[in-house]
Amino acid sequence: MQTQPITSVLLDAKISKELKTIAEKVYANERITFDEGVYLFEKGELGYLGSLANHIREQKNGNNVYFNRNFHIEPTNICVFDCKFCSYSRLLKQKDGAWELSEEQILDMVRSYDGKPVTEVHIVGGVHPKMGLMYFANLIKKIKEIRPDIHVKAFTAVELEYMCRKAKVSYAEGLKILKDHGQNSLPGGGAEIFDEVIRKEICEDKCTAAEWLEIHETAHKLGMPSNATMLYGHVEKFEHRIDHMNRLRALQDKTNGFNTFIPLKFRNGGNQMSHLKEVSVIEDLRNYAVSRIYMDNFAHLKAYWPMIGRTTAQLSLSFGVDDIDGTIDDSTKIYTMAGSEEQSPALSTKELVEMIKQVNRTPIERDTLYNVITDYSNYDFSKEEVTS
User: Fold this and answer.
1) DSSP string, 98-166
2) CATH homologous superfamily for 64-383?
């Protein structure tokens, strides 16, 4: 899907004065306002949004599309919280579909990657009352003993809030314990939508927006970078999305600790909000584009290819996205249990590279902090066997 150059947007007589003003701001590297962000959702047509978003992504990241070699560990899906949109977790009293991995099972998963060039392990799961702060701190320490070089990205703010509360420590104390045991960064999950009314409706019993933001700010102060997410396409309105982005943008101004912003599409499979219709691919692309335009102080915008599917992920690369996550290696159930497009989310490095090259972008393997590991633009896979 092609988008017109931004110069054409500025000359387009068909667009409104407000949209031209926004385009001029983007072209001049000026920040758009809250009201302008809402206006983009309400009045910006897809080609216009794509033109502006693609201009920004190419200014920030050129033609590069980033991915990493990672695997997921999900220690349990048993959870004390009852989020209405969640298809993954099971309450303590529920037996059907619940799991709880032992420490040895988790460590065996890490050992299974011996000799494979993965750079990151992503650890998230349900909030289990028996798996506390020191349990996970010691687990991370053992993971690092097996694989000293691996980057441990672990625990959403929801998990961390509960861990620290149960352990009766401050966020700073709890995060420092985890960092001292080998944790390197935080994922961005649990943010959902920050608006308090929406949050009360979809995830009333878990950490608040203020707590989520405080935990990430604390992590940044301790030298632990993080990601940020937004769950869109359910009961929220456009102004709720912009409010969410605005709070993240303000924190990024303060700490510069976020690596990437990740809009997550609500999927209606097997949860308490299954009566809601999912938004279209067109809305997915519009949301990526507005996110790229509004989140001017975020270096990267990520689309999770397992959640939206490979084709939409390719399209998103013309609408502001410069990262499509990792090889995943079929090690996560969070996406598939919600009805994601990819029911076996595993791609080899070669397949990911080919997927990126098909849309004339440059495939770049990165580490968690976006340091370049390999530029695959002219890589010859016939010379070696790459399977992860």
Assistant:
1) --B--HHHHHHHHHTTTTS---EEEE-----TTS-HHHHHHHHHHHHHH-TT-EEEE--HHHHHHHHHH
2) Aldolase class I (3.20.20.70)
Contact predicate 141/179, CB 8 Å: no
At 228-265, the pLDDT tens digits run: 999 999 999 999 999 999 999 999 999 999 999 999 99
Which residues, in sequence order, are bridge partners of residue 151? 120
Kindly tell me the burial class for residue 368, based on how many C-beta atoms sit within 10 Å of its own C-beta (0-12, 13-18, 19 or more). buried
C-alpha pair distances (Å), 97 with each of 100, 236, 305? 10, 29, 25
**Assigned token pair, 33:** 């306002």
pTM comes to 0.90
Ranges of CATH 3.20.20.70 domains, the chain: 64-383
Cα 182 from Cα 170, distance rounded (Å):
19
Hey, how many other C-beta atoms are within 10 angstroms of the C-beta on 340? 21
What is the enclosing helix (H) or strand (E) of 176? Answer: helix 171-180
What tens digit of pLDDT does each residue of 40-52 get? 999 999 999 999 9
**In whole angstroms, what is the distance from residue 290 CA to residue 50 CA?**
9
Give ∠ CA 287-196-320 in degrees, rounded to 5: 15
Q: How far is CA 43 from CA 46, 228, 259, in A?
A: 10, 26, 29
Reduced to 3 states (helix: H, G, I; strand: E, B; else coil), residue 71 is strand
Place of tokens 């001029």: 24
